[in-house]
Amino acid sequence: MSQSILALNAGSSSVKFALYDLGSSDGQLLVSRGTLDLGDAPRLTARAADGTVQCDRQFTADAPHGAGIAEILRLVKGELGGRKLICIGHRIVHGGNKFSKPVRLTPATIEALERLTALAPLHQPRSLAPVRAIAALQPDLPQVGCFDTAFHHTIDPLVRRFALPQKYEREGLRRYGFHGLSYEYIAGRLSEISPALAAKRTIVAHLGNGASLCAVREGKSVDTTMGFSALDGLVMGTRCGAIDPGVLLYFLLERGMAADELQTMLYERSGLLGVSGISGDMRMLEASSDPRAREAIELFAFRAAREAAALANTMGGFECLVFTAGIGERSSSIRKSMCEKLTWLGVALDELANDARAEIVSRPDSKVEVRVIATDEESVIARHSRAVMQVGSAT
Ligand code: ADP
Asked: What are the pLDDT digits (tens) for 261-278?
């Protein structure tokens, strides 16, 4: 009987999942891929690897997360055919200092991860909710956690450091970085495409609802724009990105804003949504003729280019720029706007290739090769999960 692994990627408004067959010696074959949207009207969609629709239905549930996970498991069981599901791998947002590699999710590791909730108060509970739901539904099914922070463990201590008293650094108040599974996938793709490309100093722009940049040298993270929390760095769908800490003090001390109100504003009411007053969704803003939508888009591109220049500085230059995730893969105008702002660093965009979303969107004479690569965090989760199941530790 062939074996399979289910990869779950729980985000703020959806759970993406992908089922893999572990047929060949070290390969993995996609069987099906789907999304559970957790909006007002929860919806489950899935397609087989050949694009055939396997499921597209709405369901009502009091607790959409738990009920949704049960729906995914039912769907996956139907698609298993003769395969045996050997484990479920998860994207876990925060691994703190302790978890630099994927691990089996035992009661002890889950408890240790729960203790990190203070470092990612909104994201960590979302990561752990499906783990707990599955443990309750199928206690004997092994689960593996893969961490968004792990890829950034190679960052130099100086780059991680805040200029705060040492005591706080020792307590873990430092830059961690996120979106690591996506960056790991892109670094892997670059080395598959060519060793020469993988050797280039690269800035990867993961531009989705959450957005960050990563400086990658020789396949390793050397700097990134998200820091202690997933708020830092770029302007995001609803998050503010880097902000003068004096602004936060002003809200707390001068305006008497409650801490939880401030948290909600910074995570859920700022970014593209806050600036435009219309939406945090880039596609909607690009379709709007409202000047506030334009301002939000321009701020997004300005800040992303500014942060890219800072990462280039960490590496002493860069020769490759990769765009990925929803906005990075699909918005030619954001790519254009960012690239124009990086002309002085040697980026020369080929507008026709960019509009056509070609693999390489820079001109042949560009000092920086600009690529668009679709990210695939689920395949990284599946690969790590398999390694953990086989040898008890990660690749
Ligand atoms: P996440 O996984 O972080 O939830 P995604 O990577 O799916 O997010 O990216 C979502 C973002 O991508 C949204 O802002 C969405 O509007 C944007 N997006 C998706 N398709 C397009 C498109 N064709 N043009 C511009 N933006 C797009």
From this structure: 999 999 999 999 999 999
Among this protein's residues, is 62 annotated catalytic? no
SS3 per residue for the chain: CCEEEEEEEECCCEEEEEEEECCCCCCCEEEEEEEEECCCCCEEEEEECCCCEEEEEECCCCCHHHHHHHHHHHHHHHHCCCCEEEEEEEEECCCCCCCCCCEECCHHHHHHHHHHHHHCCCHHHHHHHHHHHHHHHCCCCCEEEEECCHHHHHCCHHHHCCCCCHHHHHCCCCCCCCCHHHHHHHHHHHHHHCHHHHCCCEEEEEECCCEEEEEEECCEEEEECCCCCCCCCCCCCCCCCCCCHHHHHHHHHHCCCCHHHHHHHHHHCCHHHHHHCCCCCHHHHHHCCCHHHHHHHHHHHHHHHHHHHHHHHHHCCCCEEEEEHHHHHHCHHHHHHHHHHCHHHCECECHHHHHCCCCECECCCCCEEEEECCCCHHHHHHHHHHHHHHHCCCC
Is 210's C-beta closer than 6 angstroms to any atom of ligand 1?
Answer: yes
- Residue 385's alpha-carbon distances to 8, 42, 240, 336, 391, in angstroms, are 11, 28, 33, 37, 10
| pLDDT over 90, % of the chain | 82
Q: Is the pLDDT of residue 339 over 70?
A: yes
Residue 392: the pLDDT is 47
Q: What is the pLDDT at residue 82?
A: 85
**Residues 21, 148, 223, 350: which is the catalytic one?**
148
Average pLDDT, stretch 103-125? 92
Q: Classify residue 354 by burial, with Cβ atoms within 10 Å: 0-12, 13-18, 19+.
A: buried
By most ligand atoms within 8 Å of CB, the mutation choice from 330, 333, 376, 377 for ligand 1 is 330
Query: What pTM did the predictor assign?
Result: 0.95
| Residue identifier of the C-alpha nearest atom 26 of ligand 1 | 283
